[in-house]
Amino acid sequence: MSKKPNLLVLLDILCLVLLPAVVVLIVFFTPVEAVMGPVQKVFYFHMSAAWVGMLSFIFAAVAGGAYLVSRRIKWDWLSMSAIEVGMVFAVIAILSGMIWARPIWNTWWVWDPRLTTTAIMVLIYFAYFILRAGLTTPEAQARLGAVYAILAVVTVPLTFFSIRLFRTIHPVVIATGAGQGSAFNMTPRMLTALIASLLVFTILLADLIWHRFRLAQLQTDQDQEVH
Amino acid sequence: MKPTVGYLQVIWQILRKEVLIEWRGRQGVPVMLVFALMIVFLFNFALQLSPDLQAGLAAGLLWVSLAFASTLGLNRSINLERENNALDGLLMAPVDRSAIFFGKALGNFIFTFLVGLFLLPIFSLFYSQNMLQLPLLLVLLLGLGAYTSLGTLLSALSIQARTRDILLPVLLYPLALPVLIAAVEASQGVLSGQTLGAVSHWIYLLLAGFLIFTASGLLFFETILEE
Fold it and tell me: How far apart are CA B173 and CA B61, in angstroms?
């Protein structure tokens, strides 16, 4: 059994320290939004989770592509780990969004394009695991999983396109052009907390993917010892 | 290995085989058509549609019934290749495998498009509006082209799993959703009297879907059917 790498230990500690720090930052440091009240604070983790989920799925497709080129099983472990962890974050993004939507939109769920596409994205990656479960050899799982991960990532930019193509009520946080009235203005403190939260979540993502990767590695080692 | 016959000739031969099987058995198009009609009736009762509501939903119902029905055809088309190991025979042929993809995709497209052509006059009767319009045919052409292209690719993926028959819809529907949304919106626009220019962004989205999924077939079909 391989020893836990030092860098991974460092990442673990970093997450353990920074995650509570960000919570403190969000609770005590950021101002309470004038219209929405304290519930707006869910936004920092909501956007971080959504961002990290997207990042994870893109990373999974890249790792899948690397597998198809190199045919080294480690790339498949990485791709699969990224999708599994990305799923968790995508679900967190949806659930935290619902918590925010209940008082603000007065409903848990609206059939807004951005919400719907995110939910569809979760379904797409859920199907990834159904596909893998149906395949019998690790080689087939890796090969077809990689193809599917690449096909699936086409829908991630579509989530972004959808907000422009459809009429949407979802707030546009990062305004790209003038005249986007629904973008709410963040104070410098809010922006600081958001950036901190995004950074910490990205570190957490790397940490979790690495752990999941190691699990796949250890599992394979174990299987080889048994056989 | 150098191909012994031309690329287009391979596509043509595969397509010819598909059409011949369909013509002799007549088990694809009629089944899809009946299934599509059943879905229309099912929706009519499930949603308790009033006549004025129905007209606005015609485009949506058309695409939902086509999307469901075509999975029958897609599954059948690939299952025929599994019978008597016909697929192994195909793969042993010294030809470019992407040509096999194009042949099969073209076959699937023609059959599904045929179902669509049968459905249009029937829908025109049911929903008392003329749906046999040239712009709508273009939307049908592009939408089904993109849909069956992706469907053919995913059907090759799903037959390798133990769960093959139930896997295809789970993989196909969420991935095809952008295409279906665009197709519904474009059809609805056309049916409500808008010109093609007014719904051009949906047409472009359909075109993009068609190009992406066809390119994926060209790129990945070989990888999917390896061994």
Answer: 15
List all residues 6 or more positions away from A194 whose beta carbon is below 8 Å from its beta carbon.
A43, A44, A47, A48, A186
Which is nearest to B61 in space by CA: B166, B188, B160? B188
Which pTM value belongs to this model?
0.86
For an interface test with A, the pick among B153, B175, B210, B214 (most A C-beta atoms closer than 10 Å) comes out as B175
A24 burial level (CB within 10 Å; 0-12, 13-18, 19+):
exposed
Is residue A123 less than 8 Å (CB to CB) from chain B? yes
> What does the radius of gyration of chain A's CA atoms come to, in whole angstroms?
19
Contact between A155 and B157 using a beta-carbon 8 Å cutoff = no
CA distances from A168 to A4, A35, A160 (A): 46, 20, 12
Taking a contact as any Cβ pair under 8 Å apart, which residues of chain A between 170 and 199 contact chain B? none
Name every residue whose Cβ is closer than 8 Å to that of residue A208 and which is 6 or more positions away in sequence.
Answer: A85, A88
Rounded to a whole number of angstroms, the CA Rg of chain B reads 18
pLDDT (mean) for A128-156: 90
Q: Using the structure block, give the residue that is written with the tokens 């193509």.
A: A165
For chain B, which residues make up each domain, given as ranges?
A: 7-224
Measured CA to CA, the distance from residue A1 to residue A218 in angstroms comes to 7
pLDDT in tens, A163-172: 456 555 566 6
Q: HSE-up of B196 (CA within 13 Å, CB side)?
A: 11
Q: Which ipTM was obtained for this model? A: 0.87
The whole-angstrom separation of Cα A122 and Cα A129 is 11
Say which amino acid occupies B113.
Answer: F
Residues B18-33 have pLDDT tens digits of 889 888 888 888 999 9
